[in-house]
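Progress against Task 2.4 (sequence-to-structure conversion) is shown through the following example record, which the project officer requested during the mid-term review.
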Amino acid sequence: MATTLEVQYYNSFWMKNLNDLNGNSVWPKGYPYEVAGAFPGTAVDQTNGFTNNWQIEESRIRGGYNNTQVDLGVKAYIVEDEPNQQHRSNSLIYSGIFNSRTGINQTNQFSVAEDITRSIDPINGSIQKLYAEDTNLLIFQEKKVSYSLIDKDAIYTAEGQAITTTGNQVIGQNKAYLGEWGISTDPLSFAIYGYQKYFTDANKGVVLRLSRDGITEISSYGMIDYFRDTFSSINEFSTYGFSTNLAGQGIPSADWSYRFNIGFADQALVNDIQLGMAISTNGVFAGYVVLINYASRIITVDRAVTINLGNTVRFYTPIKNHVIGGYDIHNKNYILSLQNYPEWIESLRPTGYNTLAFDELVNGWSSFYDFKPGLIFSLQSNTYTTHAGKLYKHYSESNGLNRGYFYGVRYNSTITFVFNPESSKSKVFQTVNYEGDNGWQVNSFVSDFQQQDQGYTGMPSWNSYQDTTAQIPSYIDGRYEDTSSGRIVVQRRGFERKENKYFANLINSSTVRLGEVVYGNSISGIKGYFATVTFSTDNKTQAGGAKELWSVGTKFVRNAY
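Structure tokens generated for the chain above:
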């Protein structure tokens, strides 16, 4: 390490430490310097820590007046009014050019003599995403979306008309899109297909599409309430963790490692501890986990901490919740995954996410998915996602039985819809039928809520009731053999089939209500103004195979009143 001292005659001095091969401090041979009263082996400045291990060397030979001066070469320097480091989150900077054909590489050159920075309005927050499109640069800030011209600028006439000219502007004039929307702090929600760009603004609880006609709020297509409520529950930061009370366990004090085989009796709890987790004792931060031995249950912390008898120890991880977006080129859908806990913590917290798709053909949100991706992207008509460090290809039909199969887990496909004929009349729904492939079952068939007002003594006030049915098995799953008559008779407790149409009776499974004369499974059908039914694929009829559902219907009668 060298330092420069200001001395008489404007000479430059270096503080040097010279060691021999044995590591001992020595004076350079042949240079009996004597400068400013400092002799070899003499301390120069004890207050600054310069001991006799430091020597003095000047730029003039032998230190004589007007003697030959050693050339120090070029000095690199810069004049900065404020030399402190700055974090300009709303500014752009670019380097020199790069040309692989001619071998020019100036990507590490940032000349202060040139105007190479562009600043965007800081009131709109930091820049989160950049996307180059043709000759424009899209700039996504937290609260605004704008674009800048590339390699050109715009000059306006006296009438206000823009004239685009070329010049030496790398990042030209900036112009904002209409609307007070941005990308918040979720650049991973960005996806593109053609001229359509999709992204989210979690701060405003909306999903947006940027196209040639500007920014459109696509979350308003039948999903306003859903996205408003879902985005409000996704905080920017949260913590995942767990606590254990060591009362009565007697964990001894130590400096680095603690054996938790007494305090943590549950092996699964020990396995949940991850590297980098923070530790707190009775709410006070105590360090980070830097080493784990699961076999011996020894946790190594990066600092000394005392865990006293009765302390509550908490292991936790500060995490950033994720909004993951991508374009599904196979189905031409925008896939959006809202994750309270990011994908990398899947093994510890598999719940708390919603993955859904927006379809331009119907201009609405067409489906929910069961998978929780880390990234979503498309390549050559194929759609891929990542999960737990692995790459997965979707819509693979290698064996024809991969439908509903995500990341090693099979899921049943479900469809929920509403029967609402003659909506102002009370009805009794008696049957349900569908046209389609074999393998569909009814998970639930429920009526609308019927509120019971506050009445006489003993009547619970403001109760709400629904008529429900039990699950209706599929044609194959509901098959059983009846041997009560002495011979085998095939019976079905679910869907029957006639002329390739499946139908079943609705058997009421509601709980008993006060005032009802006939109730429960003695009633055929359910009563109400409308009914909500959920169909799903079963687990027996060619699991993972293709199952289509073309139409669903019901038979109902009007009540007498």
